[in-house]
Amino acid sequence: MLPGFVDSHSHLVFAGDRTQEFNARMSGRSYTAGGIRTTVAATRAATDAELEANLTRYLTEALRQGTTTFETKSGYGLTVEDEARALRIAARHTDEVTFLGAHIVAPEHADDPAAYVALVTGEMLDACAPHARWIDVFCEKGAFDGDQARAILTAGRDKGLHPRVHANQLSYGPGVQLAVELDAASADHCTHLTDADVDALAHSDTVATLLPGAEFSTRAEWPDARRLLDAGVTVALSTDCNPGSSFTSSVPFCVALAVRDMGMTPDEAVWSATAGGAAALRRTDIGRLTPGARADLLLLDAPSHVHLAYRPGVPLTAGVWRRGVREV
Predict the structure, then answer these.
(1) d(CA 99, CA 49)
(2) Which residue of 100, 118, 159, 252 pairs with 73 in a disulfide if CB–CB is 3.0 to 4.6 A?
(3) 56: Cβ–Cβ under 8 A, 6 or more apart, which residues?
(4) For the segment 253-310, what is each residue's pLDDT rounded down to a tens digit?
(5) Within 13 Å, how many C-alpha atoms sit on residue 306's CB side?
């Protein structure tokens, strides 16, 4: 029996299919932030009912694999109305809702990023803050630079939202240092890190959330979990479930990847997918089997948790309970 998995980074309110893009990447084409625009167009065109049906489908899919707590984001609408409706829909299914209006610059503001930052920190934030707990920004070449990200996260914090950061996924950059500076709950991705980045994380309360599904799908360099763990950084594992770069809802799959390709032991990977994910959400009531914690439980049809890595791709979930109620 394990605590239920805690998926502290996923993008589940979207519409559209990017199979062609995925096939191109599997053939060797590199991933960039710009592909998000394809999903934005489909999401804007979708009805509320279609978006909610997609959300519940992927939440159910993840639950069947042992995930009992989900954090999910907006970020595929990029208008005031579309971002707010995504958050309203998400909030009906989880308490861990993140405003990600700063996913990329909206297509209609491509020639004036400053105007889009002003929209995100003004009217869009006003409409979205009541429906969210967190604010996130994609701090990356092709998305938002350090100064823009700081302005967005600071504005969100002033509205009562706590920061998270998409940091250092595609290249070295200011994302991790900004996350630590603003006491972000997590710096997500953490693929390209300097020694100073690792040291900053090790001396902070910011969790490094690693998302191996993204590296698997984009054929990118793996994050060095061993380097982070040896430095004393708190590490979480999550799926990054999204239609462009990591279309998996399987935390067990991510555990197997972390053990095979990121230098983690099975014990470390399972801890990072449970207690580590809870830390990335600043939660103490989930991700562990202790008196006073929620009875979110995962029963494996296996001799031990090591089989999550030993038998990748095999459905080992025999039962899932949330708050003591069996759901699978």
Answers:
(1) 20
(2) 100
(3) 93
(4) 999 999 999 999 999 999 999 999 999 999 999 999 999 999 999 999 999 999 999 9
(5) 3
Amino acid code (one letter) for 66 = G
**Tens of pLDDT along 219-265?**
999 999 999 999 999 999 999 999 999 999 999 999 999 999 999 99
CA 185 – CA 226 distance, rounded (Å): 21
